[in-house]
Amino acid sequence: MTAPFPDRQWGSRTGLLGRTLSAFAATGAGSALVRALGPLDRRILERTAGRYTALGPVGAPCLLLTTTGRRSGQPRTTPLLYVHAGDVLYLVGSNFGGEHHPAWTANLLAHPEAVITIAGERIPVHAELIQDTEQRAEVYARFEQISKAYTEYRNRTTRGLRIFAVRRS
């Protein structure tokens, strides 16, 4: 059996702050703010080894994903929310409901070996795109439980959102 991934959430999604920010993130302005905070969030997550986030204590499970650029071959690091399932983490390429897939998803398709930083640990992982429609729906429902924003992201786009299962290498 593969070792489970650490699970660390800062704060509570069900508290007043978590509920308020989740609802705000579902709006266009909220999505723009979260996108703008991306570089700051990446720096905070890097400096704290995935323990703290610019999003604050809202109970959002955050990690850093470092992929290999499909064209450049250079490391590319992105802060993401995830769904924890013991020895599997799930990542969704919502891109805030944007028209195009986020670059990190194309990087994983080209180079499925990556590194995540979570709860103070850097862990080599292998990512696999989930193809099964039923499994995709079940996993996405779990993202919607994390934040109302995921319902809005799905409604903003006609593209199929890429969902990856990530396991230790």
Spans of 5+ residues with little confidence (pLDDT < 50)? Answer: none
Give me the side-by-side strand order of the main sheet.
2-1-5-6-7-4-3
H/E topology pattern? HHHEEEEHEEHHE
Shape: globular
Q: How many β-strand runs?
A: 7
**Tally the helices: what do you get?**
6
Described by strand count, sense and barrel closure, the largest sheet is:
7 strands, antiparallel
The helix content is 25-40%
Strand content: 25-35%
What structural category characterises the helix and strand content?
A: alpha+beta
Mean pLDDT: 88
**Amino- and carboxy-terminal Cα gap:** 13 Å
Could you tell me the radius of gyration in angstroms?
15 Å
What does this structure look like?
By secondary structure, the protein is of the alpha+beta class. It is 35% helix and 25% strand. The chain contains 6 helices and 7 strands. It has helices spanning 16-25, 28-36, 38-47, 103-110, 133-146, 149-156, and strands at residues 62-68, 75-81, 83-84, 89-93, 113-118, 121-129, 162-168. A 7-stranded antiparallel beta sheet has the order 2-1-5-6-7-4-3, sandwiched between helices. Strand 1 and strand 2 (75-81) form a beta hairpin. Helix 1 (16-25) crosses helix 2. It is globular. The mean pLDDT is 88.
